[in-house]
Amino acid sequence: MPQGNPKTGELYTHVKGGLYQIVTSAEHADTGETLVIYQALYPPFQTYARPEAQFTSQIDPGSYPKTEQRYLFQLTAPTADGNGHVPAEEKLMAFFDADSMEEKYQILLGMEDDVTDRMINNMAVVLDVVINEGPLEQRYEELKRCIRTFQKYENTRLR
What we know:
With 159 residues, the protein is an alpha+beta fold. The chain contains five helices and five strands, in the order ββββαβαααα. The protein has helices at residues 52-55, 88-97, 101-110, 117-127, 136-154, and strands at 11-14, 19-27, 34-40, 47-51, 73-75. The protein has a five-stranded antiparallel sheet with strand order 4-3-2-1-5. A hairpin with a 6-residue loop joins strand 2 and strand 3 (34-40).
C-alpha cells in the first residue's frame, strides 16, 4: 500500500540514503501518468522525475535487509518549521556554499516560493552583481539570468 501522494516541500529519504525535497508533480504529456519531480538536498542538487507509483512503492525487504524503511522513498519528519519545508535560511546557506553556478542555479530554482528581496540582495552581493529594485518576481528572474550568464563562462575561463 503506497504512503500517499507526495506534496510540494515534503522531505523524503531514499532507501539507499540521501535526502530529497518534492518540487512538484507533473502529468506525462502522452500517457497522463503522474510524475513526482524532486530535488536532491546534497551537491550537486540534481532534480529528478519518477512515476508516482514507483516513488511511493514499497520495497522488497529481501533486497534491502539492513534497512527498516518500508518504502523506496520514506517521508521524513518535518523540519524545524513544522511542515516539511527546508527552511529558507538553509537553502540560502546551500546557495552560498555551492561550488558551481549550476548548483547555485538549481538551488535558486528550489527557492522560488521562499525568496525575499533581502535574500536576493544577499545573493547579489555574493555574486558581485547589481540587481535593480523592482517587483520581487522581476528581481528573481534577473538574478536567474545573471547566474545563467556566469554559467556560460564558468568552464571556459583559464584558471
